[in-house]
Amino acid sequence: MSENAYFMQGDQETHRLEIKTDKEAVRSQALWAGVQPGMRVADLGCGPGVTTRILHDLVQPGGRVVGVDVVEDRIAYARAHYPGEGIDYVCADIRDSLDHLGRFDRVWLRFVLEYHGSKSFDIVRRARKILRPGGKLCLIDLDHNCLTHYGFSARFERAYRGIMDGLTEKTDFDPYVGRKLYSFLYDLGCRDICVQMTAHHLIYGKLRSADAINWTRKVEMASSVSGYAFPEYEGGYKAFFEEFTEAFSNPRRFTYTPVIVCIGTPPH
Ligand SMILES: C[S@@+](CC[C@H](N)C(=O)[O-])C[C@H]1O[C@@H](n2cnc3c(N)ncnc32)[C@H](O)[C@@H]1O
Known about the structure:
Bound molecules: S-adenosylmethionine
CATH superfamily: Vaccinia Virus protein VP39
Radius of gyration: 19 Å
Order of helices and strands: HHEHEHEEHEEHHEHHE
Number of helices: 9
Oligomer: single chain
Helix content: 25-40%
């Protein structure tokens, strides 16, 4: 895998991606984007195949979906767990040319541009080249990613901000890519651009186990990759993490993240 393709790695990442995916939300985003029977769809950064399979079901009868991911194990997992007549999985880096994939009615990029801050527009430009005439780009990503929690101490907030800044600097992660998607389509000269915004995370009250696993893993991984030194905590990372676990489990905390879905038709 090329350098910095995706910093969320490790044995449990495929499992985290699988359990955190809200299938109904994916389905509704795809319907909103006009995915329909007979279409050919590319799912770029497809993860464990959950989203690819949903897109596949929506294009039946007669449609085909190609799921693309840079992590070989993830593609192997997708082939084993989400196979189907009309689904192909390809291991490739979406920062490279995608011409070998053929042409599509929809090119779908969900929760992947956030990992490629400075290259995200280049990726979108390249993705546009594999559209059929009249085909649409579907860009879906978060804004204020990981940054909207309430109910934590001031020192926690400072440390958390330090982690996110370190992450951005070291890995090109962009917590604000959601707000840029519309301009990407605008700058490509797309017509019929439509934008939808809803809540992706909306966490209050008793903590669900899927949210606990997802956020524990995110905070562990982001802390380690960011290289942040936790000067606010005498006990360093361990004390920070204990405070996170306790405060996040408290039913009083409130967490939300906006998800922005943009579709548009680039000029041919
Ligand atoms: C957060 S997951 C999103 C999975 C899926 N799209 C979804 O909506 O649930 C991001 C996925 O993008 C993949 N990815 C990141 N950078 C990539 C790249 N440069 N080329 C191909 N896949 C990439 C990662 O391996 C990971 O599986």
